[in-house]
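call fold(seq) -> tokens
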Amino acid sequence: MRSGLAVTLGISLGAHAAAALLFFVPARAASDEPLDPPPQIAGETFEVPAPETAATPLANASPSPDTLAAPAAVDDPDAPARPSPPARARAGARPSHQGRPSAGHAPPGPDGAPGSTGTSQTYGAVGDRSAADLATAFTRGFPQAASGDPAWRTAPIGPAGEAIVTLTIDESGHITDTQMTGSPSAALAAGVRRTLTLIKGRPFVARGKTTKLRLTATVSTDTVHDGLHGDVFAIGGSFAAGEGAAFFALAIGRRIDLRVRLQ
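ret:
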């Protein structure tokens, strides 16, 4: 009885062991097989040095002190000696008071006379840009001042008299004295006074302290009707080279001419 039980137990154990071998042995064999190794890249390896970048200066960057520094001087005994820089010339001495032009007088000319330019001398407000030539100002001012006098409307046709006008100016160029002589008509005398009143307030220059002008006036009928003379009021005046002329034309058909000559 006991032997039969032992045989049965041994058969059962052997069957279970055989079954276990069938399941576990192939699985282990499969697990023991080596796995495929990872792919490897064939070839040689080497180190690549980092690229060197040249330092590029900025366009607006200021130069370094080393760049601006002047190169150190090197003593060369064989080099020729450098010439020393020339000395600056000293400023000339300021002209004395006598060498500078004073008020009312032009600088001396070549002959030593004050303001000498040929035979004429300049006197008065010399150097003042607002100053005018006395004879020119009188000639141009006469038609402006005299044309408003109603006496010329009734003055006789023909000569209107002659006058010698003497004008005196000081060193500042202002008129200090006036004289009128000769035989002027009433209208001409009034015209001279009006002219002096018109120009008296400004500074002048002249050939000398005293200026003498000879005036000759004429009244004529104005037959020119070009829109400028006779039909409407017109004036004009000029002076050059010691002589001048002035006129004014009235709308009533009269023309007054003035001749001026420097004495």
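Residues 27-31, 95-119 have pLDDT under 50 and may be disordered.
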